[in-house]
Amino acid sequence: MSRRESPPPPSPPPLLGVRGGEMEHEERPERVEPLSDAEREIIRDTWGRVYENCEDVGVSVLIRFFVNFPSAKQYFSQFQDMEDPEEMERSSQLRHHARRVMNAINTVVENLHDPEKVSSVLALVGKAHAVKHKVEPMYFKILSGVMLEVLSEDFPECFTTEVQMVWTKLMGAVYWHVTGAYTEVGWVQVSSSAV
């Protein structure tokens, strides 16, 4: 099994539960716990290393995501029929989307000091994925888990247990903001074939 073809990681406790192939409506917390100054610094420090290789890391994340969760490819007509990870790696469209994902995370990290900016950026991402692309919100949670797994494997020297916990908190906040945008636009699609 290559590093891109690991078994799917266990999902973190859900804000919107996925059980029996269907999303379960749970109460969304009123707000997300803010990151402390120390946590923001940990994220900025570790992200600096990751972002030096943002395209390659992003491609690794997306390939693992699509290999382990092939139903996610349904939203990408340009590479939904690709099965071979090496073919995915060569795809200019996949590389382009990997850059977009990593640049969005970079915008979040660069603006951790400005919660309004982070909220605004993630609202745009959430609304675009809900309205234009019709992507089920649980894929953001799955992608977050895959990203944390790849970062931990590719950067073991800086993704210690403490750092992983801080990044898990950040990804939870990202998911909270994105799902808030889905709620705001009246997202109603709840079934899924991803699990």
UniProtKB/TrEMBL annotation:
GO terms assigned for molecular function: heme binding; iron ion binding; nitrite reductase activity; oxygen binding; oxygen carrier activity; superoxide dismutase activity
Localization, UniProt: Cytoplasm; Nucleus
Database matches in Pfam families: Globin (PF00042)
Domain Globin: 34-183
UniProtKB keywords: Cytoplasm, Heme, Iron, Metal-binding, Nucleus, Oxidoreductase, Oxygen transport, Transport
Record has Electron transport as a keyword: no
Reactions catalysed: Fe(III)-heme b-[protein] + nitric oxide + H2O = Fe(II)-heme b-[protein] + nitrite + 2 H(+); Fe(II)-heme b-[protein] + nitric oxide + O2 = Fe(III)-heme b-[protein] + nitrate; H2O2 + AH2 = A + 2 H2O; 2 superoxide + 2 H(+) = H2O2 + O2
InterPro entries found in the cross-reference section: Globin, Globin-like_sf, Globin/Proto, Globin_lamprey/hagfish
A GO CC annotation given for this chain: cytoplasm
Residue ranges, compositional bias (Basic and acidic residues): 21-35
Keyword Cell membrane attributed: no
Xref: Gene3D superfamilies: Globins (1.10.490.10)
Chief localisation class: cytoplasm
Region: Disordered, residue numbers: 1-35
EC annotation from Swiss-Prot or TrEMBL: 1.15.1.1
Root EC class: oxidoreductase
SUPFAM superfamilies in the cross-refs: Globin-like
Entry function: Probable multifunctional globin with a hexacoordinated heme iron required for the catalysis of various reactions depending on redox condition of the cell as well as oxygen availability. Has a nitric oxide dioxygenase (NOD) activity and is most probably involved in cell-mediated and oxygen-dependent nitric oxide consumption. Under normoxic conditions functions as a nitric oxide dioxygenase (NOD) but under hypoxic conditions the globin may switch its function to that of a nitrite (NO2) reductase (NiR), generating nitric oxide.
Subunit-structure text: Monomeric.
Family that this chain belongs to: Belongs to the globin family.
Record-given protein name: superoxide dismutase
Organism of this sequence: Myripristis murdjan
Name of the gene: CYGB
